[in-house]
Design brief:
It is a single chain. The chain is 0% helix and 29% strand. Strands 1, 2, 3, 4, 5, 6, 10 and 11 form an eight-stranded antiparallel β-sheet that branches. A three-stranded antiparallel β-sheet has the order 8-7-9, with no helix packed on it. A hairpin with an 8-residue loop joins strand 10 and strand 11. It is globular.
Length: 170
């Protein structure tokens, strides 16, 4: 039995919340080196790599002017994962689901706290201890962050594990 003294966990990265208002489509993930997403709940863009054009890939440091195509969605239910408990790795090739519009739980990184209605940024700089995932969501602008979308915002503060709900393209 689990007791929540103050607040329930906000969710799991890549989980779609409020499914009735979500638009999700299936896309092919780029299998080019360094383009496959490393975690669920991160924004993706369309690849321009030869042989992978039109497939989705993780955002990188050169993508500051690109608008994300969507967010990679954690599949549910799934039977094919060989990962240990509490670890889930997106496929490096094949089909993935992409959230084009809706609400999703993501992992917040960086030192700035999220606030309800606050702008959502994507980290595109060099990874470090406070920014462990390239392309992850953060709550502050910097020279290494790009505004996700003017139609995206935080739905509240992050929980103690850094999980936070965002609204994307709403």
């Amino acid at each position: 039995m689990v007791a929540y003294a103050f607040r329930m966990p906000a969710g799991i990265p890549g989980d779609v919340n409020r499914i009735a208002s979500a638009t999700i489509e299936t896309q092919v993930v780029s299998s080019a080196a360094g383009e496959a997403p490393l975690t669920y709940g991160v924004p993706v863009v369309l690849s321009s790599t030869s042989g992978q054009v039109g497939n989705v890939r993780v955002m990188t440091s050169g993508d500051t002017a690109l608008q994300p195509y969507g967010f990679i969605v954690r599949p549910f239910p799934t039977q094919s994962s060989q990962d240990p408990l509490n670890v889930s790795t997106p496929p490096t090739s094949g089909l993935v689901d992409i959230l084009k519009r809706g609400y999703m739980t993501v992992q917040l990184q960086g030192p700035t706290a999220a606030a309800k209605g606050g702008q959502v940024f994507v980290f595109l700089g060099t990874t470090s201890t406070t920014h462990a995932v390239l392309g992850a969501v953060e709550a502050a602008t910097s020279t290494n962050a790009a505004l996700l979308s003017s139609n995206s915002y935080f739905m509240g503060p992050a929980d103690s594990n850094g999980m936070v709900e965002i609204a994307f393209n709403l």
